[in-house]
Design goal:
By secondary structure, this protein is of the alpha+beta class. The protein is built from four helices and three strands; from the N terminus they run αββαβαα.
């Protein structure tokens, strides 16, 4: 993953932020919308694209475009930096492949202990029953 090339493929759009803020909120566009076209990205390999499509399927649009919003601060530049950090963190976290599980067998001692406890509980429950009169 080449971070510089990915950053060149990002598209930003400034929107008016919602919520309280007085008269200033009606004049400035401080909310940032970050879009990244996963399908047409040249900086990601095909394996990375398929991995991200599966892991980020709930966050992608039908055209495989990732959209992030940031409106935490009043500054457009700080919101842009925060959106980039979030985006890179999201991509890096989802490119990690999970380790394959190694199959293990229980030890002979563990098997023996399990069978002994089963035997003890079955005897305990058998002693609770009424004796048969023949």
């Amino acid at each position: 993953m080449n971070v510089e090339n990915i950053l060149k493929e990002l598209n930003f759009k400034a929107i008016r932020s919602s919520g309280a803020g007085g008269q200033h909120v009606n004049k400035t566009s401080s909310k940032i919308e970050l879009t990244f076209d996963l399908e047409n990205s040249n900086s990601l390999s095909e394996d990375e694209k398929t991995l991200l499509k599966t892991k980020l399927s709930s966050k992608l649009t039908n055209e495989n475009v990732l959209i992030l919003f940031c409106e935490e601060t009043r500054s457009q530049h700080r919101n842009k930096d925060l959106a980039i950090k979030r985006f890179l963190g999201l991509i890096e976290a989802n490119l990690i492949r999970p380790k394959r599980r190694k199959k293990t067998k229980p030890s002979k001692g563990a098997i023996k202990k399990r069978l002994e406890t089963k035997q003890r509980t079955s005897v305990k429950k058998a002693l609770r029953k009424r004796p048969k009169i023949e």
